C-alpha cells in the first residue's frame, strides 16, 4: 500500500509518501501562495527520492478542507489530475481530523481536542475530537466571543490549537479548562497519509467526477472600487 498525500489547506504546502502506514519521505514548504507547478514538483520529488515512480503509487490522498479556498482548490485539482492520469483512486481526509491526530497521543483520555483554522476576522473553522480520534462535534465555522464553547469547557479540559486558536486564547485564556499549547500545530501531509492508510484499507474512495473540496462556506469576494478621475 503506497499512498502519496498532499495538504494545501493553509500557507503550509506539504507532501508525503507512506508505505503500509510508514512514512518514507515528506516535504513541507511554508509559503504565502501555493502554485500547482510547485506542488507537482514536490510530489514528483518525494516519490523519486524514496526510490519509486509515480505509476507505482496505489492511491492519492488529499486534505479536503476546511481551509484556504484557493489552497484547497489547487490541492484537490492536482490530486484529481494525478488520479485521472495514473488511474488511481482518490482519498480525501478532513484537515481538522488530521490536525487532531498530530496531538492526540500527548493528552489524557479525559481531554477534548479542538483544532482551529483561521477563517478571518473573529471566525474560525473548528471541530471537536477525543484523544482516540473520534469526532465529538462536526466541523463548523464559529464566531469567537467570551461565551464560545461554554458547554465543552464546563465538562472538562479542552485543548485549542492551530492558527485560529490565538483568537480564542485572547478571550478564553483565563478559563481553567481552556488549554493552549505553545507548540505550533499546522496541517501536514504526514498525518493526511496516516489517516488515508486507514481509509484505504476500508475502501473509502471518492468519486473523481463529483468530488469537491470541503470549503465549509462560500468564497467571498469584494467589488473593486471605481477609479476616481
UniProtKB/TrEMBL annotation:
InterPro entries: ATPase_NBD (IPR043129), Gcp-like_dom (IPR000905), T6A_TsaB (IPR022496). GO terms for cellular component: cytosol. Residues 32-148 form the Gcp-like domain. One of its GO terms (biological process) is tRNA threonylcarbamoyladenosine modification. It comes from the Bacteria. This is tRNA (Adenosine(37)-N6)-threonylcarbamoyltransferase complex dimerization subunit type 1 TsaB. It comes from Spirosoma validum. The gene is tsaB.
Amino acid at each position: 500500500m503506497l499512498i502519496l498525500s498532499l495538504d494545501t489547506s493553509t500557507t503550509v504546502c506539504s507532501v508525503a509518501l507512506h508505505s503500509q502506514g510508514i512514512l518514507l519521505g515528506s516535504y513541507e514548504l511554508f509559503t504565502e501562495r501555493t502554485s500547482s507547478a510547485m506542488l507537482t514538483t514536490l510530489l514528483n520529488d518525494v516519490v523519486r527520492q524514496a526510490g519509486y515512480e509515480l505509476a507505482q503509487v496505489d492511491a492519492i490522498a488529499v486534505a479536503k478542507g476546511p481551509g484556504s479556498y484557493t489552497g484547497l482548490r489547487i490541492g484537490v485539482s492536482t490530486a484529481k489530475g494525478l488520479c485521472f492520469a495514473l488511474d488511481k483512486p482518490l482519498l480525501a481526509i478532513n484537515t481538522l481530523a488530521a490536525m487532531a491526530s498530530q496531538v492526540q497521543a500527548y493528552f489524557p483520555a479525559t481531554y477534548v481536542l479542538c483544532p482551529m483554522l483561521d477563517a478571518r476576522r473573529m471566525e474560525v473553522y473548528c471541530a471537536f475530537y477525543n484523544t482516540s480520534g473520534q469526532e465529538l462535534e462536526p466541523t463548523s465555522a464559529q464566531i469567537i466571543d467570551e461565551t464560545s464553547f461554554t458547554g465543552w469547557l464546563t465538562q472538562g479540559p479542552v485543548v485549542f490549537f492551530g492558527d485560529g486558536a490565538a483568537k480564542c486564547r485572547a478571550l478564553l485564556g483565563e478559563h481553567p479548562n481552556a488549554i493552549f499549547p505553545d507548540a505550533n500545530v499546522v496541517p501536514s501531509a504526514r498525518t493526511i497519509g496516516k489517516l488515508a492508510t486507514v481509509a484505504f484499507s476500508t475502501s473509502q474512495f471518492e468519486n473523481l467526477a463529483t468530488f469537491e473540496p470541503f470549503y465549509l462556506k462560500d468564497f467571498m469576494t469584494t467589488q473593486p472600487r471605481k477609479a476616481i478621475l
